[in-house]
Amino acid sequence: MQTLRHPALRKEFVSRWRAAIERLETADRLSLYVRSAERALAVREADEARSWAELATRIAGDKIEVTILLAQALVSAGDFVAARVALERAKGLPGAESFALLLAVERAEIALRDGDLDLAAREAQRAAELKTEPALALRARNILGKKLLAESQWQEADLHFAQDALFAAAAGEGTAELRARLNRGIALMSNGRHDEAGELLEAVERDGLALNNSAACAYAAENLAILATWRHEYGRALAYTERALEHMVQAGDRATVSLVLANLAELRCKLGLFTHAEHALAFGKQVIGPGMPPSVSASFGVTGARLALIRGNTSEAWREIQRVLSQPRSAIFGEAYLVASRIALEEGNLPRARDNLACAREVVVTDKFRAEISLLEAYLRRAEGLPYLDVAEQALTLARSEGDEDLLREVYTLLFDQYRAVGRLDLARAQITLAEELRDRVASQLDGDIRKAYLERVDVALISTLREDVEASDVLPRELSGPQPSIAGTGPATMRRRPAAKRELVGQDPTIRALTNAIKRVAPADSTVLIHGESGTGKELVAEAIHASSTRRTGPLVSLNCAALVESLLLSELFGHEKGSFTGAGGRRRGRFEIADGGTLFLDEIGDISPRTQVALLRVLQERTFERVGGTTPVKVDVRIVCATHRDLRSMVDRGEFREDLYYRLRGVTLEVPPLRQRLGDLPILCEALLERIADDQGVPRKTMSQSAIELLSRYRWPGNIRELENVLRVAFLFSDSSVLSVKDFTSNVEELRNVGQGSNPPPRHSLPPASSEEMVDLVETDGPIPAQESDATSVVYSYVRAGQSSLADIKRQIERDCIARALVETKGNITRAATLLGMKRPRLSQLVKQYGLGIATEDV
User: Fold this and answer.
1) 93, 577, 591, 633, 761 from 584: Cα distances, Å
2) How far apart, in Å, are the Cα atoms of 492 and each of 249, 483, 700?
3) Which of 211, 586, 716 is nearest to 732 (CA)?
4) DSSP E strands, 158-209
5) Which residues pair with 336 in a beta bridge?
6) d(CA 290, CA 381)
7) Per residue in 316-359, pLDDT tens?
């Protein structure tokens, strides 16, 4: 049976073996049941051993040897309560006096595994002091030594196991000698005597091979892996863990094999070997089968969730963590809650992230996980637009005490972002230098493909990108003429031109995180996407992100602003034209649909197209063919359509301004882009990205924002959204003589911000003065006057609508979205309860949640 590793094969063999035994006489059956139970115990098949022992007990009745065997099987299966009952029963059976010391040792084993060290020591002390067979005495002394290890009495444990090794060697107990030397190696490791521990463990592995003791070899290799990890020698740790796995498979210990595989998966994940890590987890699940112990299952689940999160599959990561947290509470719950918090942060679900972080605080016990709690708290505060430097520095202190490279690298990157945002490039550069030292220290221990995989990890590769970024912040382009300023006293600067800043969505606001997550889900599909948002919010960037993440990314992305052309020109731009089809058509011309064949066509301001264009567009969407203007030959194309509008198409359909059939064709998936005023916490990140783009456009050094300038911009409502912000930054950038933009740079050069700097928001441009509360009450003829606070709100809304800054329909949509978001937060994402709060039908609310991209919500509890 020892050679049968596959659970299904082993189960089939055991079933047939049992059927064969049951055809024998009673005495023969008992003998084979006992031998089968002992064999299963030897290879640590706990459930199988328990089954055989129970069968033997039914035949043997009150035979003490069988009752003790049952107790041993129950201990192996982790059922300590039942094991104690069996041992108590054995004490009263005939012949119990002859087994008194064995019973004491068995009780000591149970107490040790149950965490009752004092009881374990009392029971074991009797057997250790009395004259008994060496094997039993060594078992008792092993328990006493483990108590010393558990109490961190390293020197005493070292001496104790050294004596046990000599005793076992003299008695010819080879297995006990290897066990004592192995435990002595653990004592030396824990006492900081790493070189001695390594030599001893290497010797145990060699001697275990000579004695064909695979279990001793496996435990020695696994502890050598731990020692290498402590030394940050991850390449050696990986080799030792893989060796331990080979030994453990030979030993037939499936439960321990699965634990080694969990450690192997975690180590491979650390080194960037993500596919190999997934293989280790899959193999572990296959080896252990459906009866995986909860502790092993939880370890697999947490590692699997981390891998899924790295892969960007937050749904799978969340399912793995939910499976872990649905099991009986264990020591791994703290780590599971931390991973759950990371998943929620990735999805932009800040309330859920904070809830899981609070749960983690209640159960974590190590500085490593406390450091991760502080790090995630800093991420949360940054996403909420709150100060986070003190929490990040706390995470740094804890991570340094643990020496965990992954956590330290995350903290250094977070501090880099903070220092760069406030213009402290010297401190930002220092963080990157520390991160580089960490990276290089690990990489120097790795070889070949493993080193390459580690350096290609996204977070590791990011270090080089940030280094280039921070160095570029100090330099000037070569093309600048005239005297060059010195940098840090090193003489004339020799500069390289920076690449243009990448156009992409940036921000940590929950709405942006939800939008980014929705883009990841939508992009791989080929469905039509409708992007809705106010003018200037960055709808084109969303379209670019969808294309870049789609299967069509190698094809063209073609854009067209439908509002910029009259009907005849728009039709020609979309579908092309034949020669002579209209005045000036001197030859055949391909339209945007043909140019975009095999790629994506982005139609901006789709709500502004004429009825005739709507009909033509509907035909293309239905049939995937069209005819050029003035032509009769059908042209077939393979194009994905992404549309954008700031208008309320649903209201336009109701008013008869937009075709209903086209509307439903276009809104296969709807993504909502939030206005800037709803995510003012992202201003520092947005300003940084826009200033980077402005500097690259002009070929001059980059500039940063002062904190007071950020606070000024936060008090403005930004009716023109990101586009208006970029224009404001360009003006301030142009007229500022400093590398750090101040409040004065904005208030002196931007009229809209002048009044903000003086303490009041200006009225929207080109608007009539808002009516006072009294005027509003006099004008409205209803059942009663509008309350003052409501009339104030109404006057502001009306002034925006009157000034053309926004339509009433858009404002209604925004109010609806905000109220739904608040209700979901209050009900923790439960749609049924949120619908009750809002006085809506649940199906309609569910539809709006998806339409507005408000993330994941539960249907019921």
Assistant:
1) 111, 11, 16, 21, 51
2) 64, 8, 16
3) 716
4) none
5) none
6) 42
7) 888 888 888 887 777 788 888 999 999 988 877 888 889 999 99
- Determine the average pLDDT of the residues in 539-546: 91
Q: Which two tokens stand for residue 215?
A: 């279990």
d(CA 587, CA 579): 4
Residue 238 in this model has a pLDDT that exceeds 80? yes
Partners of residue 334 on adjacent β-strands: none
Res. 734: pLDDT tops 90: no
- 260 strand-pairing partners: none
**Average pLDDT, rounded, for the chain:** 78
Average pLDDT over residues 224-230: 88
The C-alpha atoms of residue 136 and residue 143 are separated, in whole angstroms, by: 11
Rounded (5°) CA angle 691-810-557:
55
Facing residues of 644 across strands?
Answer: 531
Q: Which amino acid is at 202?
A: E
- Dihedral (C-alpha) 205, 207, 210, 214: value to the nearest 10 degrees? -40
- Residue 788: pLDDT band with limits 50, 70, 90: very low
Which pLDDT does position 810 carry in this prediction?
A: 65
First to last CA, the chain: 47
- Find the angle CA(65)-CA(68)-CA(73) to the nearest 5 degrees: 125
pLDDT 10s digits, 128-185: 666 567 888 888 888 888 888 888 888 998 998 999 899 889 888 888 899 899 999 9
Sign (positive or negative) of CA dihedral 244, 235, 293, 220:
positive
- Cα–Cα distance between 809 and 651 in angstroms, integer? 8
- Yes or no: say if 110 and 87 are a contact pair by the CB < 8 Å rule: yes
Q: Are residues 707 and 387 in contact, defined by beta-carbon separation less than 8 angstroms?
A: no
The DSSP secondary-structure symbol of 637 reads: -
Given a contact cutoff of 8 angstroms between Cβ atoms, the answer to whether 815 and 804 are in contact is: no
Strand locations in 404-556, DSSP E? Answer: 529-532
Cβ-based neighbour number of residue 459 at 10 Å: 14
Q: In the predicted model, is pLDDT for residue 201 greater than 70? A: yes
C-alpha 314, offset from chain centre: 7
Q: How far apart are CA 539 and CA 439, in angstroms?
A: 37
855 class by beta-carbon count within 10 Å (0-12 exposed, 13-18 middle, 19+ buried): buried
| Residue type for position 468 | E
CA distance 157 to 145: 6
Residue 526, pLDDT score:
83
For 764, the token pair is 């929207």
CB 129: neighbour CB atoms within 10 A? 11
Q: How many helices (H) and strands (E) does the chain have?
A: 42, 9
Question: DSSP state, 768?
Answer: P
Q: Is 525 helix (H, G, I), strand (E, B) or coil?
A: coil
Name the β-bridge partners of 601: 558, 641
Q: Which of 544, 650, 659 is nearest to 604 (CA)?
A: 544
**How many Å separate Cα 613 from the centre of its chain?**
45
Residue type, 673: V
- Give the residue with greater pLDDT, 743 vs 424: 743
Quick check: 619 and 575 in contact, CB under 8 A? no
